[in-house]
Write a structure and sequence with these properties.
The protein is an alpha/beta fold. The chain is about 35% helix and about 20% strand. The strands form two sheets. Strands 1, 2, 3, 4, 5, 6, 7, 8, 11 and 12 form a ten-stranded mixed beta sheet that branches. Strands 9-10 form a two-stranded antiparallel sheet.
């Protein structure tokens, strides 16, 4: 097993991640440099990260673009030719490091898709379709994060649904990341409650303007997994009973029932998330209608138009 340091800078965006950060950082010993971008944690996250050798940088979000990860790209003194982004609840296994070591030697690839292997309620899921692929490893200067919401909530200081736009060829690595949050189901559901508010605002923006943002990943049915997810999300916006269809997709079509009760719970959480998005979107539309003085000044519903122009993925951070 090779153990040499690789010319990669690892960047972890974190806030109150003392239960997760140690495992994440201990899996990054092969990165040449490691930064933890902290947002004023109230727990021991910064101290743990510093003790494990990471450079801890504080970030205060003032709204707009960039958010935390893009800010790190724009601000940090990154000297390595490659950058990898991880969440604090993720870890890079040895087999993936071996693939990374081989992949970054390829002159034809400017970035790599990696599957985020889904762990839930203490087990690794083999079924259910909850794992997803995203670009997390790329050549410095070849990737930038999407600009979606024009005025995102200050509580959403980190890119969650925003994906990396790559200028160049995107390859793929086979070994998945370990994606497992040790903060429990309460924190998981609370996080996705905040995500659903963000998603509702994004859908409202699309329905009123016909665009998801100023700079986005292209939606393409036959593109890479990021582009396919965006195309499918655009289609899902036009399908009735979306929450129920997500449950059927995960639990039956993708065989989450084979995971036992955790599979049932995960499928319900996904369906509930989408139901919350619909409820919050309804509330936003009502408020907008009142502000505009009633139905006489309603905006055209562009959500009924072109699927191929839409972007913006289904909830994926743990969706």
């Amino acid at each position: 097993m090779m153990t040499e340091t690789l010319p990669i800078t690892a960047i972890i965006a974190a806030r109150n991640e003392e239960r997760n950060i140690s495992r994440c950082l201990c899996s990054l010993t092969r990165a040449q440099a490691t930064y933890v971008i902290d947002s004023g944690s109230h727990d021991a996250t910064p101290a743990i990260a510093a003790d494990l050798g990471a450079d801890v940088v504080q970030f205060r979000y003032l709204g707009g673009y960039p958010k935390k990860r893009q800010w790190a790209l724009d601000t940090l003194n990154i000297t390595t030719p490659w950058v990898i982004f991880l969440d604090a609840d993720e870890a890079v296994p040895d087999a993936l490091w071996e693939e990374i070591a081989a992949g970054i030697k390829s002159p034809s690839c400017d970035a790599f898709l990696v599957t985020k292997g889904f762990h839930f309620l203490g087990r690794r899921f083999r079924f259910g379709g909850f794992s997803f692929s995203a670009v997390i490893l790329f050549r410095r200067g070849r990737g930038r994060f999407e600009q979606l919401l024009r005025d995102p909530p200050l509580s959403q200081d980190m890119e969650v649904h925003e994906r990396l736009i790559v200028d160049g060829h995107v390859g793929r690595l086979r070994t998945p990341l370990i994606h497992e949050d040790f903060k429990g189901l309460d924190a998981y559901i609370d996080r996705h409650n905040r995500y659903s508010s963000w998603e509702a605002l994004l859908r409202q923006q699309y329905c009123s303007t016909g665009a998801w943002g100023a700079d986005t990943v292209k939606a393409h049915l036959f593109g890479n997994p990021q582009e396919q997810r965006r195309w499918l999300k655009a289609l899902a916006l036009r399908v009735p009973f979306e929450p129920q269809l997500w449950f059927l997709y995960h639990y039956f079509l993708r065989l989450a029932f084979l995971e036992g009760r955790p599979g049932l719970i995960a499928s319900r959480v996904r369906a509930n998330y989408i139901a919350d998005v619909h409820a919050k979107l309804y509330e936003l539309k009502k408020a907008a209608s009142v502000a505009e003085g009633g139905a006489g000044r309603r905006q055209p519903n562009v959500c009924a138009v072109r699927v191929d122009d839409a972007t913006g993925g289904p909830f994926d951070k743990h969706g």
